[in-house]
Write a structure and sequence with these properties.
It contains 7 helices and 12 strands. Helix 4 crosses helix 6.
Length: 273
């Protein structure tokens, strides 16, 4: 029986060869399954298209005035998130198609989830209160297993010492990577859903997205990160742009093996050195 799958878009040509081969073979579903040579051949085709691109001199991302009707939302968002142990410093109104990208995969089904949510796009990109719910739990042997609604969670320690499963912030965020160029830091699925909707409505007047400007790079792009591949990609001569997810020659549609996200908690004995 074939596995459950979800639709996704991948910028395969910007991946490194071994990463792409492993992604195609382990994370994607093909019928028949790809062998290593077939996966590498597929990557080579997309990588060659990236290498054939002219060197990209990415200009500063244009910043537009905040619409008058969104001023109160922006004010409340900044009141909640600017300072207060957050790296949010401002809210910008930008065209997401101008952003540099560092993530190479967008799950279309996850974008569909954001598209279906009620409300204006400004409240989907500048999320102030992300909804929470009790997590389904089961016990298997000596392990407690909690089912998460999506991957954006972590276990954090509270001021009183208690541990809690924390949901990441839901807003779209960017960071300046030099000379006014903005990198899409978080919110790829929301931005993909927003851009796709705008592209499908040629008469749409609102083609700009409200995003949070932050001060810190994603950890994978830090100069001290042990695997420099992503940093080399972003700061190289042909960085991927968010717009590339909508270019058929550069973006490949795939079926990803569907995942369920869980937190497992177990107390175990280890050798005391």
């Amino acid at each position: 029986m074939p596995p459950s799958t979800v639709d996704a878009i991948v910028l395969l040509g910007w991946m490194e060869r071994d990463e792409a081969v492993a992604f195609l073979r382990d994370q994607c579903y093909f019928e028949p399954a790809l062998d290593n040579q077939q996966a590498e051949t597929l990557w080579t085709q997309y990588h060659a298209r990236v290498e054939a691109l002219p060197a990209r001199i990415v200009p500063a991302t244009k910043r537009y005035p905040i619409p008058a009707g969104e001023q109160s939302l922006v004010k409340e968002f900044l009141r909640r998130f600017r300072g207060n142990n957050s790296d949010v410093i401002d809210v910008l109104c930008i065209d997401p198609m101008e952003l540099v990208a560092f993530q190479t995969v967008v799950v279309s089904d996850r974008a569909d989830h954001h598209h279906r949510q009620a409300g204006a796009w400004s409240k989907k990109t500048l999320v102030i209160d992300r909804p929470t719910a009790n997590l389904p739990m089961r016990i298997e042997g000596d392990t407690i297993k909690l089912i998460l609604p999506h991957a954006e969670h972590m276990i954090g320690q509270q001021p009183d010492g208690a541990f809690r499963i924390i949901q990441f912030a839901g807003f779209v965020s960017v960071v300046d990577i030099g000379a006014g160029r903005l990198l899409l830091k978080a919110g790829y699925h929301r931005s993909f859903a927003f851009t796709r909707e705008v592209m499908n409505e040629p008469e749409a007047k609102d083609k700009l997205e409200l995003v949070a400007l932050t001060t810190s790079l994603p950890p994978q792009l830090s100069p001290t990160f042990p695997q420099p591949g992503l940093r080399t990609m972003v700061f190289g001569s042909r960085p991927p742009l968010f717009a590339d997810f909508f270019v058929s020659d550069l973006a490949m549609a795939v079926k990803l093996r569907k995942k369920r996200w869980e937190t497992h908690i177990r107390i175990t004995a280890v050798d005391d050195p």
